[in-house]
């Protein structure tokens, strides 16, 4: 199971995400970097472990403000060869195809940013597209058809429990397992609430192919030894 660090960007800085309350996010303080500059934080993460992917959430773009394209470009320069998963709130198929044509990164289509199924329906065969199934508590965020109809899902699916992000409640392993049971062999990624190595083990046992992690990496709750896969 891969561990994929999350970098949340707001106003050009990496912020500490907590509980999905984006208006309260503040610049991150981390033992991995002397600054909250996205490129510095990305480089610090790669010094911790040889991660193969980074998940980058452009919170400004998700909420309809100017995108942090310069910051994302700086991350790409800082960690060449690492696959970037970019969540930028795109909800339109034409905009998604234009983005994919211009960028070499992978695009996360968040269910919370969708108004229907047409965008993911037209992109589900695109190898660089992922679908994030977003939840706040028990409530699914987005068109219910995206959750109900697994045939719409692309090859990689994220199960994002926003209320558990940056918290100490642990991951929603049961929800991840329920999505895996319906996923038809698709890769399912858990997100939200990972505290320590035991949580990683629980998600791996549930069948997750990968997990998104942020806070536990920056606090040292997950160490380089914990992240070893050999």
Structure description:
With 230 residues, this protein is an alpha/beta fold. Helix content is 31%, strand content 25%. It is built from 9 helices and 11 strands. It has an 8-stranded parallel beta barrel, surrounded by 5 helices. Helix 1 (38-48) runs parallel beside helix 3 (69-78). It is globular and about 45 Å long. 43% of the residues are buried.
Major β-sheet annotation: 8 strands, parallel, barrel
What multimeric state do the chains show?
single chain
Report, as a whole number of angstroms, the end-to-end distance: 11 Å
List low-confidence stretches: none
Order of helices and strands: EEEHEHHEHEHEEHEHEHEH
What characteristic shape results from the CA principal axes?
globular
Biggest sheet, spatial arrangement of strands: 1-4-5-6-7-9-10-11
List the helices and strands and how they pair.
Blueprint: E1 2-10, E2 13-16, E3 26-27, H1 38-48, E4 53-58, H2 59-62, H3 69-78, E5 83-87, H4 93-102, E6 106-110, H5 118-123, E7 129-136, E8 139-141, H6 144-148, E9 156-161, H7 173-182, E10 187-191, H8 197-206, E11 210-213, H9 215-219
Parallel strand pairs: 1-4, 1-11, 4-5, 5-6, 6-7, 7-9, 9-10, 10-11
Antiparallel strand pairs: 1-2, 2-3, 7-8
Quick overview:
With 230 residues, the protein is an alpha/beta fold. The protein is built from 9 helices and 11 strands.
């Amino acid at each position: 199971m891969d561990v994929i660090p999350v970098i949340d960007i707001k106003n050009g800085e990496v912020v500490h995400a907590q509980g999905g309350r984006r208006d309260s996010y503040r610049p991150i303080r981390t033992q991995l970097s002397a600054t909250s500059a996205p490129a510095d934080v990305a480089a610090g993460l790669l010094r911790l472990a040889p991660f193969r992917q980074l998940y980058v959430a452009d919170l400004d773009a998700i909420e309809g403000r100017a995108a942090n394209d310069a910051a994302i470009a700086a991350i790409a320069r800082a960690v060449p060869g690492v696959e970037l998963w970019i969540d930028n709130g795109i909800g339109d198929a034409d905009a998604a195809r234009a983005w994919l044509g211009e960028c070499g990164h992978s695009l996360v289509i968040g269910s919370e940013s969708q108004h229907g199924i047409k965008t993911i329906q037209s992109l589900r065969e695109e190898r660089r597209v992922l679908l994030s199934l977003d939840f706040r508590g028990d409530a699914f965020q987005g068109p219910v058809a995206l959750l109900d109809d697994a045939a719409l899902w692309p090859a990689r699916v994220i199960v994002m429990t926003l209320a558990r992000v940056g918290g100490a409640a642990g991951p929603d392993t049961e929800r991840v397992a329920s999505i895996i049971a319906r996923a038809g062999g698709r890769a399912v990624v858990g997100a939200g609430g990972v505290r320590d190595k035991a949580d990683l083990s629980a998600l791996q046992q549930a069948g997750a192919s990968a997990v998104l992690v942020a806070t536990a990496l920056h606090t040292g709750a997950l160490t380089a030894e914990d992240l070893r896969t050999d």
